[in-house]
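User: hey, got a sec? need Phosphotyrosine protein phosphatase folded
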Amino acid sequence: MDSTYRRTDLTVDQQHALLAAARILTEEFAGTFGVETIDRFLHTSYVQFAGRATVANFLPLLAERFARQRLRALARIEGKDASGVPIVLFLCVHNAGRSQMALGFFAELAGERAVGWSGGTEPVERINPAVVEAMRERGIDITAEFPKPWTAEVVQAADVVVTMGCGDACPVYPGKRYLDWDLADPEGKPIQQIRSVRDEIERRVRTLLGELGIPTA
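Assistant: Yep! Here you go:
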């Protein structure tokens, strides 16, 4: 594992951070996945962000968090996750607005009774600040989230895939339940219009949770 991250294109701090992330994930998934699988997922997750992130110091943390999500997805696919809770994946183009608001409401309302993920077909560097503010008005902090791509195992592990504006670029796998939410893209919109999109997303998330048998207040 050390040789993977001791490369000339990484700073010493990045190398150390990735090695620390690898150790954390190895302990977390001990008995589920071997070192080689964890190393591969962490490395490919790092590559996903390296080409577009401007703050290089955050790359190892983003890679660790994304690798953790992907490994959890793989565990579900391979029958190594016995939790049985439904997984819902929210997809849009940039993973900076609609899908992040949907995930924020879903996580807040579902708690530990379901798992929510999000992704984008063309993820950008950061979440739309106006979207963050609109969600903060509802008491939901989404600043810990970050735009990310979708991967095959994440889509395959989901029970429901909700698409929002990504059209033919959204992945389609047989046997999945797909919902297409026709919602305005909040990019470049004033906060008043974003609030309208936000409120419609909340309504749809509550309806979806009801269909999944998860009551909300």
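Quick note: The beta strands are 87-92, 115-120, 160-163, 177-180. Let me know if you need anything else on Phosphotyrosine protein phosphatase.
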